[in-house]
Amino acid sequence: MGTLAVPPEVDAVFREFRTCELTTLAKDNTPITWPTVALYQPTKAKFVITTSIGLPQKAYNVRRSPRVAMLYSNPTGSGLAAPPAVLVQGDATCPDEIVTRSDELDALGRLLMVRQPVSAKYSASPLARYLSDWYLMRLLIHVRPRRIRWWPKGDLSGPAAELEVDHVA
Amino acid sequence: MWPELVRRLPRFSSAVLTGLDTRGYPVSVRCHPTPDRQAQVLRVAVPDGLGLAPGPAGLLCHEHDEDLWELDSFLVRGGLERDDHGWVFRPRQLVRGMSPTPVGNLRLMRNGRRTARRYLAVRGLPRPKIPWEHYAQLKEEAGGSPSGPRRP
Per the CB < 8 Å rule, is B67 touching A115? Predict the structure, then answer.
Protein backbone atom coordinates (compact mmCIF):
# COMPACT_ATOMS: atom_id res chain seq x y z
CA MET A 1 0.00 0.00 0.00
CA GLY A 2 1.44 3.38 -1.05
CA THR A 3 1.27 6.86 0.30
CA LEU A 4 -0.80 9.58 -1.31
CA ALA A 5 1.52 12.49 -2.10
CA VAL A 6 -0.24 15.67 -3.20
CA PRO A 7 0.89 19.32 -3.26
CA PRO A 8 0.62 21.15 0.10
CA GLU A 9 -2.34 23.28 -1.01
CA VAL A 10 -4.32 20.16 -1.94
CA ASP A 11 -3.25 18.41 1.26
CA ALA A 12 -4.58 21.40 3.24
CA VAL A 13 -7.94 21.17 1.49
CA PHE A 14 -8.25 17.46 2.35
CA ARG A 15 -7.40 18.17 5.99
CA GLU A 16 -9.30 21.40 6.62
CA PHE A 17 -12.45 21.46 4.50
CA ARG A 18 -15.47 20.63 6.66
CA THR A 19 -17.31 18.76 3.91
CA CYS A 20 -16.85 17.36 0.46
CA GLU A 21 -19.57 16.55 -2.05
CA LEU A 22 -19.62 12.77 -2.45
CA THR A 23 -21.22 11.28 -5.55
CA THR A 24 -22.36 7.69 -5.84
CA LEU A 25 -24.28 6.13 -8.71
CA ALA A 26 -27.94 5.17 -8.38
CA LYS A 27 -29.38 2.01 -9.91
CA ASP A 28 -30.29 3.91 -13.11
CA ASN A 29 -26.75 5.39 -13.20
CA THR A 30 -27.89 8.86 -12.11
CA PRO A 31 -25.12 10.49 -10.06
CA ILE A 32 -26.38 11.21 -6.55
CA THR A 33 -24.40 13.84 -4.65
CA TRP A 34 -24.64 14.74 -0.97
CA PRO A 35 -22.30 16.67 1.31
CA THR A 36 -20.36 14.51 3.73
CA VAL A 37 -17.36 14.50 6.07
CA ALA A 38 -14.34 12.57 4.82
CA LEU A 39 -11.37 11.35 6.82
CA TYR A 40 -8.15 11.79 4.83
CA GLN A 41 -5.63 8.98 5.34
CA PRO A 42 -2.65 9.82 3.10
CA THR A 43 -0.41 7.11 4.53
CA LYS A 44 -2.99 4.52 3.51
CA ALA A 45 -3.73 6.30 0.22
CA LYS A 46 -7.45 6.46 0.91
CA PHE A 47 -10.36 8.42 2.35
CA VAL A 48 -12.88 7.09 4.85
CA ILE A 49 -16.50 8.16 4.81
CA THR A 50 -19.26 6.76 6.97
CA THR A 51 -23.00 6.70 6.83
CA SER A 52 -25.66 5.52 9.24
CA ILE A 53 -27.74 2.42 8.57
CA GLY A 54 -30.61 4.89 8.84
CA LEU A 55 -29.29 6.64 5.72
CA PRO A 56 -27.88 3.68 3.80
CA GLN A 57 -28.50 4.68 0.17
CA LYS A 58 -24.93 5.70 -0.59
CA ALA A 59 -23.73 2.36 0.83
CA TYR A 60 -26.15 0.45 -1.41
CA ASN A 61 -24.97 2.49 -4.39
CA VAL A 62 -21.29 1.81 -3.68
CA ARG A 63 -21.88 -1.94 -3.29
CA ARG A 64 -23.55 -1.99 -6.71
CA SER A 65 -21.18 0.43 -8.47
CA PRO A 66 -17.85 1.39 -6.85
CA ARG A 67 -17.19 4.47 -9.03
CA VAL A 68 -17.41 7.63 -6.92
CA ALA A 69 -16.29 11.25 -6.94
CA MET A 70 -15.52 13.68 -4.13
CA LEU A 71 -15.51 17.39 -4.85
CA TYR A 72 -13.99 19.79 -2.34
CA SER A 73 -15.54 23.10 -3.31
CA ASN A 74 -17.06 24.66 -0.18
CA PRO A 75 -14.34 26.19 2.03
CA THR A 76 -16.75 27.49 4.72
CA GLY A 77 -15.18 26.99 8.15
CA SER A 78 -11.86 25.73 6.79
CA GLY A 79 -9.89 28.88 7.57
CA LEU A 80 -8.14 28.58 4.19
CA ALA A 81 -7.78 31.65 1.99
CA ALA A 82 -8.34 31.08 -1.75
CA PRO A 83 -7.92 27.29 -1.63
CA PRO A 84 -8.06 25.23 -4.81
CA ALA A 85 -11.21 23.34 -5.79
CA VAL A 86 -10.29 19.65 -5.78
CA LEU A 87 -12.01 16.78 -7.57
CA VAL A 88 -11.17 13.21 -6.58
CA GLN A 89 -12.42 10.28 -8.65
CA GLY A 90 -11.98 6.83 -7.24
CA ASP A 91 -13.27 3.40 -6.38
CA ALA A 92 -15.12 2.74 -3.14
CA THR A 93 -15.93 -0.29 -1.05
CA CYS A 94 -18.50 -0.65 1.69
CA PRO A 95 -18.61 -3.92 3.64
CA ASP A 96 -22.01 -4.96 5.02
CA GLU A 97 -20.75 -4.65 8.58
CA ILE A 98 -22.29 -2.33 11.16
CA VAL A 99 -19.62 -0.53 13.16
CA THR A 100 -20.23 1.23 16.46
CA ARG A 101 -16.61 1.54 17.50
CA SER A 102 -13.34 1.52 15.53
CA ASP A 103 -10.17 3.56 15.17
CA GLU A 104 -11.48 5.19 12.00
CA LEU A 105 -14.81 5.99 13.63
CA ASP A 106 -12.97 7.46 16.60
CA ALA A 107 -10.86 9.67 14.31
CA LEU A 108 -13.98 10.92 12.55
CA GLY A 109 -15.74 11.40 15.89
CA ARG A 110 -12.88 13.53 17.21
CA LEU A 111 -13.00 15.69 14.08
CA LEU A 112 -16.74 16.22 14.43
CA MET A 113 -16.65 16.98 18.14
CA VAL A 114 -14.36 19.92 17.45
CA ARG A 115 -15.74 21.04 14.11
CA GLN A 116 -19.46 20.50 14.78
CA PRO A 117 -19.86 21.33 18.49
CA VAL A 118 -23.66 21.20 18.40
CA SER A 119 -23.55 17.48 17.53
CA ALA A 120 -22.78 16.83 21.22
CA LYS A 121 -26.42 17.44 22.07
CA TYR A 122 -27.35 14.13 20.44
CA SER A 123 -25.72 12.25 23.30
CA ALA A 124 -26.36 14.72 26.09
CA SER A 125 -29.36 13.03 27.76
CA PRO A 126 -30.98 9.58 27.95
CA LEU A 127 -33.82 10.78 25.71
CA ALA A 128 -31.39 12.18 23.13
CA ARG A 129 -29.44 8.92 23.19
CA TYR A 130 -32.65 6.90 22.71
CA LEU A 131 -33.72 9.04 19.75
CA SER A 132 -30.34 9.18 18.03
CA ASP A 133 -28.70 5.79 18.64
CA TRP A 134 -29.46 4.74 15.04
CA TYR A 135 -27.21 7.56 13.82
CA LEU A 136 -24.18 5.93 15.45
CA MET A 137 -24.79 2.53 13.83
CA ARG A 138 -22.35 3.17 11.02
CA LEU A 139 -21.22 1.66 7.72
CA LEU A 140 -17.68 2.50 6.61
CA ILE A 141 -16.97 3.49 3.02
CA HIS A 142 -13.34 3.40 1.87
CA VAL A 143 -12.43 5.44 -1.19
CA ARG A 144 -9.26 4.71 -3.16
CA PRO A 145 -8.46 7.71 -5.35
CA ARG A 146 -7.66 7.07 -9.01
CA ARG A 147 -7.47 10.59 -10.36
CA ILE A 148 -7.16 13.92 -8.57
CA ARG A 149 -7.66 17.27 -10.35
CA TRP A 150 -7.49 20.71 -8.83
CA TRP A 151 -8.10 24.26 -9.93
CA PRO A 152 -5.75 26.78 -8.26
CA LYS A 153 -7.66 29.31 -6.12
CA GLY A 154 -10.90 27.60 -7.16
CA ASP A 155 -10.75 29.34 -10.53
CA LEU A 156 -12.56 26.98 -12.88
CA SER A 157 -11.88 29.13 -15.93
CA GLY A 158 -8.24 28.04 -15.91
CA PRO A 159 -6.78 24.60 -16.62
CA ALA A 160 -6.80 21.95 -13.90
CA ALA A 161 -3.65 20.36 -12.53
CA GLU A 162 -3.86 16.60 -12.43
CA LEU A 163 -2.46 13.58 -10.62
CA GLU A 164 -3.12 10.00 -11.68
CA VAL A 165 -2.84 7.83 -8.59
CA ASP A 166 -3.31 4.31 -9.91
CA HIS A 167 0.24 3.49 -8.82
CA VAL A 168 -0.58 3.76 -5.13
CA ALA A 169 -3.38 1.16 -5.18
CA MET B 1 -41.32 20.14 -9.34
CA TRP B 2 -40.16 23.11 -11.48
CA PRO B 3 -41.88 25.77 -9.28
CA GLU B 4 -40.27 24.31 -6.14
CA LEU B 5 -36.86 24.18 -7.83
CA VAL B 6 -36.90 27.83 -8.93
CA ARG B 7 -38.16 28.82 -5.48
CA ARG B 8 -35.34 27.00 -3.67
CA LEU B 9 -32.47 27.75 -6.05
CA PRO B 10 -31.95 31.47 -5.20
CA ARG B 11 -31.36 30.57 -1.53
CA PHE B 12 -27.96 29.16 -2.53
CA SER B 13 -25.05 31.10 -3.99
CA SER B 14 -23.99 28.22 -6.24
CA ALA B 15 -24.64 24.53 -6.93
CA VAL B 16 -22.69 21.36 -7.63
CA LEU B 17 -23.40 19.80 -11.00
CA THR B 18 -22.44 16.15 -11.47
CA GLY B 19 -22.47 14.11 -14.65
CA LEU B 20 -20.47 11.15 -15.90
CA ASP B 21 -17.26 11.07 -17.90
CA THR B 22 -16.57 8.71 -20.77
CA ARG B 23 -15.13 6.11 -18.34
CA GLY B 24 -18.34 6.11 -16.35
CA TYR B 25 -16.91 7.94 -13.33
CA PRO B 26 -18.84 10.84 -11.79
CA VAL B 27 -17.49 14.33 -12.48
CA SER B 28 -18.56 17.23 -10.27
CA VAL B 29 -18.11 20.93 -10.70
CA ARG B 30 -19.43 23.99 -8.88
CA CYS B 31 -21.57 26.18 -11.09
CA HIS B 32 -24.16 28.97 -11.16
CA PRO B 33 -27.26 27.54 -12.83
CA THR B 34 -29.52 29.96 -14.68
CA PRO B 35 -33.18 28.99 -15.03
CA ASP B 36 -34.64 29.02 -18.52
CA ARG B 37 -38.26 29.40 -17.43
CA GLN B 38 -39.75 28.80 -20.83
CA ALA B 39 -37.94 25.52 -21.46
CA GLN B 40 -37.97 24.63 -17.74
CA VAL B 41 -34.29 23.73 -17.78
CA LEU B 42 -31.18 25.11 -16.06
CA ARG B 43 -28.37 26.49 -18.17
CA VAL B 44 -24.92 25.77 -16.73
CA ALA B 45 -21.42 26.89 -17.67
CA VAL B 46 -18.98 23.98 -17.46
CA PRO B 47 -15.21 24.41 -17.85
CA ASP B 48 -13.58 22.79 -20.86
CA GLY B 49 -11.60 19.62 -20.37
CA LEU B 50 -13.75 18.12 -17.61
CA GLY B 51 -14.72 15.20 -19.83
CA LEU B 52 -18.43 15.45 -19.04
CA ALA B 53 -20.68 13.46 -21.34
CA PRO B 54 -24.39 14.08 -22.01
CA GLY B 55 -26.54 11.70 -19.97
CA PRO B 56 -27.73 11.20 -16.40
CA ALA B 57 -26.83 14.04 -14.06
CA GLY B 58 -27.56 15.55 -10.68
CA LEU B 59 -27.53 19.00 -9.15
CA LEU B 60 -26.84 19.56 -5.44
CA CYS B 61 -27.36 22.77 -3.48
CA HIS B 62 -26.01 22.77 0.07
CA GLU B 63 -24.77 25.10 2.76
CA HIS B 64 -23.47 24.95 6.31
CA ASP B 65 -22.17 27.56 8.71
CA GLU B 66 -18.67 27.90 10.20
CA ASP B 67 -19.61 25.37 12.90
CA LEU B 68 -20.81 22.80 10.40
CA TRP B 69 -24.41 23.42 11.42
CA GLU B 70 -27.48 25.11 9.92
CA LEU B 71 -27.30 22.34 7.33
CA ASP B 72 -29.47 23.00 4.31
CA SER B 73 -29.54 20.99 1.11
CA PHE B 74 -31.56 19.58 -1.73
CA LEU B 75 -30.75 17.49 -4.76
CA VAL B 76 -32.23 17.35 -8.24
CA ARG B 77 -32.02 14.27 -10.42
CA GLY B 78 -32.07 14.87 -14.13
CA GLY B 79 -30.10 14.80 -17.34
CA LEU B 80 -27.33 16.77 -18.98
CA GLU B 81 -27.66 17.81 -22.60
CA ARG B 82 -25.85 20.03 -25.07
CA ASP B 83 -27.59 22.47 -27.35
CA ASP B 84 -26.46 25.34 -29.55
CA HIS B 85 -25.94 27.59 -26.51
CA GLY B 86 -24.00 25.19 -24.29
CA TRP B 87 -24.83 22.77 -21.48
CA VAL B 88 -28.35 22.30 -20.20
CA PHE B 89 -29.49 20.47 -17.06
CA ARG B 90 -32.99 19.06 -17.49
CA PRO B 91 -34.47 18.47 -13.99
CA ARG B 92 -36.60 15.41 -13.37
CA GLN B 93 -37.04 14.92 -9.62
CA LEU B 94 -36.32 17.08 -6.57
CA VAL B 95 -35.11 15.29 -3.44
CA ARG B 96 -35.18 17.11 -0.09
CA GLY B 97 -32.00 16.92 1.94
CA MET B 98 -31.13 18.44 5.29
CA SER B 99 -33.21 21.28 6.66
CA PRO B 100 -32.17 23.66 9.44
CA THR B 101 -35.75 23.78 10.79
CA PRO B 102 -37.04 21.78 13.82
CA VAL B 103 -39.50 20.03 11.49
CA GLY B 104 -36.63 19.01 9.26
CA ASN B 105 -34.74 17.58 12.25
CA LEU B 106 -37.78 15.65 13.41
CA ARG B 107 -38.30 14.22 9.92
CA LEU B 108 -34.66 13.11 9.83
CA MET B 109 -34.96 11.41 13.23
CA ARG B 110 -38.22 9.65 12.38
CA ASN B 111 -37.10 8.44 8.95
CA GLY B 112 -33.64 7.46 10.17
CA ARG B 113 -34.99 5.33 13.01
CA ARG B 114 -37.45 3.64 10.69
CA THR B 115 -34.85 2.90 8.00
CA ALA B 116 -32.32 1.62 10.55
CA ARG B 117 -34.94 -0.73 12.03
CA ARG B 118 -35.66 -2.09 8.56
CA TYR B 119 -31.92 -2.48 7.77
CA LEU B 120 -31.50 -4.65 10.87
CA ALA B 121 -34.74 -6.61 10.35
CA VAL B 122 -33.88 -7.57 6.75
CA ARG B 123 -30.56 -9.03 7.98
CA GLY B 124 -31.99 -10.58 11.12
CA LEU B 125 -29.57 -8.57 13.25
CA PRO B 126 -30.08 -7.45 16.85
CA ARG B 127 -30.00 -3.71 17.57
CA PRO B 128 -26.33 -2.83 18.18
CA LYS B 129 -25.48 -1.23 21.51
CA ILE B 130 -23.83 2.17 21.28
CA PRO B 131 -20.74 2.58 23.51
CA TRP B 132 -21.93 5.88 25.00
CA GLU B 133 -19.24 5.88 27.69
CA HIS B 134 -16.58 5.59 25.02
CA TYR B 135 -18.11 8.55 23.18
CA ALA B 136 -18.15 10.56 26.41
CA GLN B 137 -14.45 9.78 26.82
CA LEU B 138 -13.72 10.89 23.24
CA LYS B 139 -15.62 14.08 23.95
CA GLU B 140 -13.53 14.66 27.04
CA GLU B 141 -10.32 14.08 25.05
CA ALA B 142 -11.54 16.50 22.39
CA GLY B 143 -11.87 19.15 25.07
CA GLY B 144 -15.57 18.82 25.65
CA SER B 145 -18.07 18.29 28.40
CA PRO B 146 -21.23 16.16 28.48
CA SER B 147 -23.20 19.13 27.18
CA GLY B 148 -20.80 19.92 24.38
CA PRO B 149 -17.13 20.43 23.61
CA ARG B 150 -15.27 23.64 24.24
CA ARG B 151 -14.18 25.49 21.15
CA PRO B 152 -10.46 25.38 20.39
Answer: yes
